[in-house]
Amino acid sequence: MREEVLPGGNTTGAVLIDGVVHKRASRWTPTVHAVLRHLEDAGFDAAPRALGFDDQGREMLSYLPGETIGGREPWPGWATADTMLVQVGRWLRRVHDLTAGFTPPSDECWFVGRTMGPGLVVGHQDASPYNAVVDGDRLVGFCDWDTAGPSSREWDLAFSALTWVPLAAPRDGSPVGDDDLRERSRRLRLLLDAYGYAGDRGGFAAAVPQRARRQADVIRHLADAGDGAATALLPVAALLERSATDVEALPATFWTH
């Protein structure tokens, strides 16, 4: 059987065999598969379906057909389109609503290291442009559920705000001008409105830098443990730290107007 290497995948590269995705499994993969089956049973088709494991112990997932960013630079236009941002907000809301009632298996294990509890949802935790699958101007869904796990709605939504609005600092280190700040504020409002976020938007401001720093800490912890993929992501960790500082400096009106 011919294996076609799929683009992207910073930590767990995937291959396509006869229309099925095969990826290296982790100890938390069975729990993630339980989430994907839960979503499938609810009629949600904007996520891969869990298909078990192959004879090499790799997880098997249905293939979401469409376009991904892969290694392209610059990113395609859909990554910054308002119409896509609205779909992302709606996708996140649907996943959160459906997983609020998820009962994990008795041996639950998550990448994030916490357990499911009252008031939590299962967040994708990395619903970012580089994990999106699109067909034209339509969001097909998100792949790479490896780091999915229990969190508040705000925690998962905050990372998507960082990467889609974006609230992350420019990668070239250039300053963000007033016009760009107004545009980011508008796009943040668009994302939260599409989600139907009813919480305190001023309070949401605190979740974003916390989420950015947590992601940076995870990358550095894995790199310190010798993980080669995480080591390659150390510049991303530095970007997230800078993003957290920049977000904390935003005026209150950025979040509420």
UniProtKB/TrEMBL annotation:
Molecular function (Gene Ontology), one example: transferase activity
Pfam family, one: APH
InterPro entries the UniProt entry points to: Aminoglycoside_PTrfase (IPR002575), Kinase-like_dom_sf (IPR011009)
Domain of life: Bacteria
Keyword terms: Transferase
Protein's UniProt name: Phosphotransferase enzyme family protein
Domain Aminoglycoside phosphotransferase: 120-168
Signal peptide: none
